[in-house]
């Protein structure tokens, strides 16, 4: 939830450029998360990593 300034929410007082910057950073952060998740599971046979971990142990 956004903090309040008096009786208004902080988000209501943000300028358009600031809101666009926040949106860009959020999109970039999500893109990094998605890329990391895709790299983690790319070209992996279902259940393969568990079997390899069990065989190594």
Helix/strand order: EEHH
What is the approximate shape?
A: elongated
Count of DSSP H/I helices: 2
Please outline the major beta sheet: 2 strands, antiparallel
Which features characterize this protein?
single chain, 57 residues, mainly alpha, two-stranded antiparallel sheet, 2 strands
Which helices and strands, and how do they pair?
Elements: E1 4-5, E2 8-9, H1 16-41, H2 48-56
Antiparallel strand pairs: 1-2
Report what the structure shows:
The protein is mainly alpha-helical and 57 residues long. The chain is 61% helix and 7% strand. Strands 1-2 form a two-stranded antiparallel sheet. The longest helix is centred in the middle third of the chain and has 26 residues, at 16-41. It is elongated, with a radius of gyration of 21 Å. It starts with a strand and ends with a helix. The mean pLDDT is 81. Residues 7-24 have a biased composition (Basic and acidic residues). Residues 1-25 are annotated as: Disordered.
């Amino acid at each position: 939830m956004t903090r309040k300034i008096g009786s208004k929410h902080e988000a209501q007082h943000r300028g358009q450029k600031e809101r666009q910057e926040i949106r860009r950073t959020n999109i970039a952060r999500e893109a990094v998360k998605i890329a990391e998740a895709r790299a983690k599971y790319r070209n992996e046979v279902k259940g393969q990593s568990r079997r390899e971990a069990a065989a190594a142990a």
